[in-house]
Automatic annotation (TrEMBL):
Pfam family, one: ICAM_N
GO biological process annotation, one example: cell-cell adhesion
Protein name: Ig-like domain-containing protein
Originating species: Oreochromis niloticus
Subcellular location: Membrane
Keywords annotated in UniProt: Cell adhesion, Disulfide bond, Glycoprotein, Immunoglobulin domain, Membrane, Repeat, Signal, Transmembrane, Transmembrane helix
Endpoints of the signal sequence: 1-21
Keyword Aminoacyl-tRNA synthetase tagged: no
Positions in coiled-coil regions: none
Length: 352
């Protein structure tokens, strides 16, 4: 039987017959990764010229000692165990023996990968946790959990667990809520690091979870503004704010007419209208997360001089000049002359 030949070989090794210095075995493949209940095959080749026979020792798929061969195949149609250590051995003509174990890793992808979170929302600045549950995966020592947030991959988590059979594992991601993460998708991914490069089965991922972050209103243009108004022209007041939940708005106008009152509710974040009187116009963006206020100081623009005003100004100026000129051209008795030398006081200028 195959196990008896194996122990017989060990007996030879223990009774003083050393392994030959020319002993050399080559495995193809050098290691095996196989799914539980899957199949695989391997070949053992002796590179020694002194080989008398070969065999495979294994509780499943073993091959008895075969004489006069230097290459021998091993095959299992359905892997029934989580640990396998098939061993190829050769017997040499001088009574020595060579052995080599074929490394076999038996794996199983998780039954499920899912996210669990106590709350679907978080306030900005507060920490919240999301848990990734992986059910029945093996081997855990080769398992890593990758966390994704949007297009970013966060630090993976690995597990120090040497059990070869399936186990259930959980990974917890703790984040500090930030407004930039509002609406971002988060998911986890299970990966078995057993193959080089992109070989092996694809990774298994959970459904994505959309993050909701609550934060107070923030003005897109936070600076207070000073504006000049011209009668009949529109002015735009921008009080647009971003927040979650979306903010409501309250405008306060100077009390200058019956149609506007202090603390009047106006829901628009941007007002474009004709403002007839100067003053301070106040906008407040508010929600249950906070309040922010912006002030618009509106002053009256200097009035431009119209044509009529220019004409009136010219007339007034001429009158002043004539008044000044009258000191020299109007005589004490009230007669008027443009030529001072052609007029004599008390002398009529012509027939009466």
């Amino acid at each position: 039987m195959m196990w008896s030949s194996f122990f017989f070989g060990l007996l030879i090794a223990c009774t003083g017959n050393p392994a030959s210095s020319s002993c050399s075995l080559k495995m193809s493949p050098s290691r095996v990764v196989v799914k539980f209940e899957g199949s695989f095959s391997a070949n053992c080749t002796s590179l020694s010229n002194d080989t008398e026979g070969m065999g495979w020792e294994s509780p499943y798929g073993g091959v008895d000692l075969t004489q006069n061969v230097t290459s021998l195949d091993f095959k299992i149609d359905s892997v029934p165990e989580w640990e396998l250590g098939p061993m190829c051995y050769t017997n040499s003509r001088d009574g020595g023996q060579c052995t080599e174990v074929l490394p076999v890793t038996v794996y199983k992808m998780p039954d499920s990968v899912s996210l669990r979170q106590n709350s679907s929302t978080g306030k900005e600045g507060e920490q919240f946790a999301i848990q990734c549950d992986l059910v029945n995966v093996a081997p855990a020592r080769n398992l890593s959990v990758l966390w994704h947030k949007g297009n970013k991959i966060l630090n993976p988590e690995t597990f120090n667990d040497s059990r070869p059979s399936p186990v259930s594992k959980s990974s917890v991601l703790t984040l500090t809520a930030h407004r930039d993460d509002d609406g971002a998708e988060i998911w986890c991914e299970a990966k078995l690091n057993l193959w080089p490069g992109e070989q092996g089965p694809t990774m298994m991922r959970s459904k994505s979870h959309r993050v909701t972050v609550l934060y107070p209103p923030t003005l897109t243009k936070p600076e207070n503004e000073t504006l000049e108004m011209t009668v009949g022209e529109n002015i735009t007041l921008n009080c647009n704010a971003k927040g979650n939940p979306p903010p409501s708005y309250r405008w306060e106008f100077p009390k200058f007419s019956k149609e506007f009152h202090n603390k009047e509710e106006v829901i628009e974040p941007i007002l474009t209208r004709t403002f007839e009187l100067p003053g301070v116009y106040t906008c407040t963006a508010y929600s249950d997360q906070g309040t922010v206020t912006k002030y618009f100081n509106i002053s009256e623009a200097p009035r431009s001089r119209t044509t009529f005003g220019v004409m009136v100004g010219v007339g007034v100026a001429v009158g002043v000049l004539l008044l000044i000129a009258g000191v020299y051209f109007v005589t004490p008795n009230g007669t008027f002359s443009f030529n001072k030398g052609g007029y004599q006081p008390g002398t009529p200028s012509g027939p009466v």
